[in-house]
Amino acid sequence: MKEELIALEIFCHHCQVELTFVKNLSESGLVELIEEEEKLFIPSYEIDQLERLTRLHYDIGVNIEGLEAIQHLLNKLKQAREELKRAENEIAYWKQLAK
Amino acid sequence: MEFIDYYKILGLSKSAGADEIKKAYRKLARKFHPDLNPDDAEAQRRFQEINEAHEVLSDPEKRKKYDKYGKDWKHAEAYEQAGTGAGGGFSGFGRGQGAEGFEDFSEGFGGSGFSEFFEHLFGGSYAGSRGGGGGGVRFKGQDLKATVQLSLRDAYTSHKRTLDVNGKKIRITVHEGVEDGQTIKIKGYGQPGMNGGPPGDLYLTFQVLPDSHFRRVGKHLYKDIPINLYTAVLGGEITVDTLDSKVKLKVKPGTQNGAKVKLKGKGFPAYKGKGEPGDLYLTYNVSIPSSLTEKEKALFEELANINKKA
To answer: Do A59 and B180 touch (CB under 8 A)?
Structure first.
C-alpha cells in the first residue's frame, strides 16, 4: 500500500544519509527497497533496520561488509535467545506440573 | 557527582589529537554500541560514557573548558561567576549568587549528571547533524523486555494490571484470549534516549502458566472428565466445570473410555474478542471400581455369566 512506503529521497534528506549508502544496503540484501514508477521507496517496516544500519555506519564507521557480518551474527543471537526462552518456558511448565 | 575523566574513558592522553580521539571513540563504540549489544544495560551505560566523552573532547570549545577546569571544573566555573557577580549564565542551577548558591549548584549535578550540565552550559541539546564532526547523534533509548505471568483464567478475561517496570508503574489492559508467548509493544516505556533521542519501547511477553484442569491448544480447550463405570454403561447426567461456568451434560449409555465430546464455543475467546471463540473438548475417563463388596462381586460375576451365555 502506498501509505506504508516512504520515499527514499525524503528519508535520506531527513536523516542526512547518502542515497548510495541505502542503495548499497539494498544491493547487499540488508534492507528492502521498492521501486514504483521509477522512484525508490522504503517500506515502513524496514525503517528500524535502516536506522540501525545507518547508525552503525555513520557513528562508528562500519562498512557494508561489516554490516552484513553484524546482521548475520545478530540474527544468530536473536535465534539463540528465542531458543533459550523456549527452553526456559518448557522448564517452567514441567516445574509447575511437578508441584 | 564524581569527576569523570573523559580522557581515561577513551584511553587517551591529554595531548591526544582530533584523529586519535575519533579513532579511540570508534574503537570503543564498536565494542559497546547498543545496536551491537541488544538488551545489555551495562553496554548501554558504557556507550553513554564513551559518547559523552567524545562529545566533549571532539569539540574544541567544550574540550578547552573541560581542560581548563580539570577535576574542579564545575566549582571553578561557579567561583568565576560568583567572583564577577554575574550569575546569569548559571541562573538555571541555583537560586542565588555567592557562597550560598553553591550548594544548590552542586545538587544540580547529583541527579542526571553530566549531560544536564552540558545542556545548560553550552546551550541546547546535543542533537546535531549526522556527519557534522563533533555534533552529538540522537540515539533512541534501549528497548526493555519483560515477562508477565498469567494463569489460564487470567488470560480468559480482559482485565487491568499494574506493572512495576524499573520503578515506573504502568497500567495495562490484558485482553481476553492472549496467547502464551505473545508480545506487545508499549511505545516510549524503554530506557531514555541519548542526546535528545526518543525513549526506547517496552516489550511485554505474556507467559500463560499451565492449568491443572484445562489444557489449551490455540483457542481450543481440552479437559479430562472422570465418570464412573455405571454412568458409562447405563448413561446419565453429569455437571462439568468450564472456565467460567458449569454445564450439565447427558452421558450416552455405553460410553467408552477415552470417548470425546465437543462443547462448541466453550473454549477460549479469540484475542480481544475478535472472532469466534474456541471449543471445549472433553475426554471421558471411565474409572473401574477397584474394591468391590461381596455383593457387588457376586453381581459382576452374574453379569459375566450372562455375557458368556449370550
So the answer is: no
Chain B residues whose beta carbon lies within 8 Å of the beta carbon of residue A16: 129-131
In a domain, B134, yes or no: no
Which structural domain, as residue segments, surrounds residue B241?
215-309
Give residues with Cβ within 8 angstroms of B128, minimum separation 6.
Answer: B134, B135, B136, B137, B195
Q: What is the mean pLDDT of chain B?
A: 78
Q: For B26, which of A15, A61, A78 is closest by C-beta distance?
A: A61
Q: Number of Cβ pairs closer than 8 Å across A and B?
A: 42
pLDDT for A15 equals 85
Q: Which of residues 21-40 of A touch B (CB under 8 A)?
A: none
Reported ipTM: the value is: 0.73
Q: DSSP 3-state assignment of A61?
A: coil
Number of domains in chain A: 1
Q: How far is A57 from chain B (nearest CA, A)?
A: 10
Chain centroid to Cα B292, Å, comes to 57
- Residue B221: give its domain's CATH number: 2.60.260.20
- pLDDT, tens digit, 9 for 90 and up, residues B184-203: 988 888 888 877 778 888 88
Residues ≥6 apart with Cβ < 8 Å to A17: A11, A54, A58, B130
Range with the poorest average pLDDT among A31-45, B128-142, B197-211: B128-142
Phi and psi of B226, rounded to 5°?
-75, 130
Between CA A43 and CA B75 the distance in angstroms is 51
Average pLDDT over residues B256-283: 92
Phi, psi of B151 (to 5 degrees): -80, 165
Indicate the SS3 state at residue B43: helix
